[in-house]
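Example 3.2
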Amino acid sequence: MAADLPMNQLSFISNIPDAAQSAQLGIARGIRGLNQDAQVVAQSVSGLGGDVTGALVDSLQKKLSVEASAKVLTVSGQMVGTLLDIMA
């Protein structure tokens, strides 16, 4: 069945794993950033200094980034399922 698909559709299908990998990388980076921001906040509470406001703003940005990456991962999984249904 894949042999019947036009070339542009085949290249689209081959990009799905890239989207999932990018999403997983985005989630990992976001979580790593959240952990760093949490350390800054914890250190400032214990009197070691640090830009709490910057860390809190950054943590909100990281949260949104993780949510967006999770959505990309969900949609890429749905696309794989749809493509499998179509090809079956």
